[in-house]
Write a sequence for this structure.
């Protein structure tokens, strides 16, 4: 409250705090002052420039070094109007141009209450959580900022990155512990062989979690792994214990209806209906089975991209005769990057990469790019993903 | 090899192999060029993959909160120095 009265007069604040406590404090102060928090997808100067150009009265907090601050205020929680614009998240597509995603206070608050019900046992004691994902990402915002505000969750101010950091951060909080993370961090954490105290629950999102990784994590850390399904537009939608569940269970807060263009998500706390960017089969009153990505969506490091668009960018490169960008599924590949097979007799791999670098968001740059004499197209010119995967696996085996 | 020591060259090879940097020749990595953002253009997924590869090869765990570590990931030279100092 005291902090809120000190804020500059403005509609928007760019919250860059990496320290989660400072982020939360600045977010709450902005709420009280009626200001909307902008959540930049990264700290790159170019991103911030774009953001400041689009929201010209925005000021920035947390840009310089962060002083350590102890929690120092207790005040009545003020009433924030339901339709106050609380935060804007940005989703960057394949080309990196960020799309704003407005969250009203009602959406964040009621979403948090619904998530608490879905993810936490009502009668359990307070969980002490550590998150490896930044608070500026919707997944990090919903779990590491909003859950602590509305549920029995305390959050560490740290954002550990390397396996040893995750272990240290977990050991710095008392039991029972919860780890909020993503498959790539969890895979590295497990593979590194670091040990840690008991973890009561792991929740993960931002990329598909394989059943094997879920099983290994549960066995190694003697824990429960809850996989979360959602998108920036809807927030957290559904969950499953991937080690044993095939189907996803969604909260009764949401209504899913099958329509012509796919599945529509409605909820009282969402300002508008959301079309699910995935293909799902509704299997029960509150469950569905995931059948695949809608069209060609890929999800890497919390960013959603369109394969069709990436392929278009690849094929328009002068000298590229044919080519395909895809998400490899083979065993040799850890699956966190896209790969490409390219027919380009006169180009080097570095030429292709250079050309793509200018047009494509970096996480979507394919690696490896393998040059081939031709793609396994069928007579009709159609390219089956299965044939692409097989060709890629064979080439990888050969190297 | 642009002034790479033997250990630096071994690390350069590990880096290229672990990260699938097929457009980069290990021998051509300048020891003092930045690895992340500009320079080699590595990102945070690479940082994790590289940390794992280093753990497996040199048996050391990296930590981001160690200030030397932030510096270590700057260039091939500083990373190699960090590994030489920390591996037993």
């Amino acid at each position: 409250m005291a902090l809120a009265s000190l804020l500059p007069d403005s509609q928007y604040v760019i919250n860059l705090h990496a320290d989660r406590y400072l982020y939360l404090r600045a977010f709450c102060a902005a709420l009280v002052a009626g200001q909307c928090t902008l959540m930049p997808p990264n700290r790159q100067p170019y991103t911030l420039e774009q953001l400041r150009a689009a929201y010209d009265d925005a000021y920035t907090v947390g840009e310089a070094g962060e002083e350590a601050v102890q929690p120092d205020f207790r005040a009545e929680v003020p009433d924030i109007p339901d339709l106050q614009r609380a935060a804007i998240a940005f989703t960057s597509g394949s080309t990196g141009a960020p799309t704003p995603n407005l969250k009203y206070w009602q959406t964040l608050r009621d979403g948090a209450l619904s998530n608490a019900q879905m993810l936490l046992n009502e009668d359990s004691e307070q969980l002490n959580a550590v998150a490896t994902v930044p608070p500026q990402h919707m997944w990090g915002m919903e779990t590491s900022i909003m859950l602590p505000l509305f549920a029995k969750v305390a959050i560490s101010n740290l954002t550990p990155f390397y396996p040893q950091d995750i272990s240290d951060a977990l050991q710095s909080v008392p039991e029972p512990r919860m780890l909020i993370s993503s498959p790539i961090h969890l895979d590295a954490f497990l593979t590194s062989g670091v040990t840690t105290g008991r973890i009561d629950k792991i929740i993960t999102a931002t990329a598909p979690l394989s059943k094997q990784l879920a099983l290994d994590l549960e066995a190694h850390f003697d824990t429960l792994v809850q996989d979360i399904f959602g998108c920036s537009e809807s927030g957290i939608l559904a969950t499953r214990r991937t080690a044993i569940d095939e189907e996803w269970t969604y909260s009764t807060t949401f209504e899913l209806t099958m329509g012509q263009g796919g599945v529509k998500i409605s909820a009282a706390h969402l300002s508008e209906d959301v079309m699910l960017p995935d293909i799902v089969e509704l299997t029960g009153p509150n469950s569905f089975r995931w059948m695949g990505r809608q069209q060609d969506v890929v999800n890497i490091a919390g960013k959603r991209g369109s394969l069709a668009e990436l392929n278009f960018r690849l094929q328009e490169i002068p000298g590229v005769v044919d080519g395909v960008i895809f998400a490899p599924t083979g065993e040799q590949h850890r699956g966190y990057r896209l790969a490409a097979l390219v027919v380009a007799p006169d180009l080097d791999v570095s030429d292709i990469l250079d050309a793509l670098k200018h047009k494509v968001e970096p996480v979507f740059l394919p690696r490896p790019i393998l040059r081939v004499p031709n793609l396994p197209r069928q007579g009709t010119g159609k390219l089956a993903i299965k044939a692409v995967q097989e060709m890629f696996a064979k080439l990888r085996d050969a190297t | 090899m642009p002034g790479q020591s033997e250990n630096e060259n071994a690390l350069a090879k590990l880096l290229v192999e672990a990260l699938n940097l097929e457009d980069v020749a290990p021998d051509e990595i300048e020891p003092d060029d930045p690895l992340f953002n500009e320079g080699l253009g590595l990102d945070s997924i690479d940082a994790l993959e590289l940390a794992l590869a280093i753990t497996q090869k040199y048996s050391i765990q990296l930590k981001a909160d160690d200030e030397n570590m932030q510096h270590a990931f700057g260039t091939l030279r500083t990373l190699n120095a960090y590994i030489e100092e920390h591996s037993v």
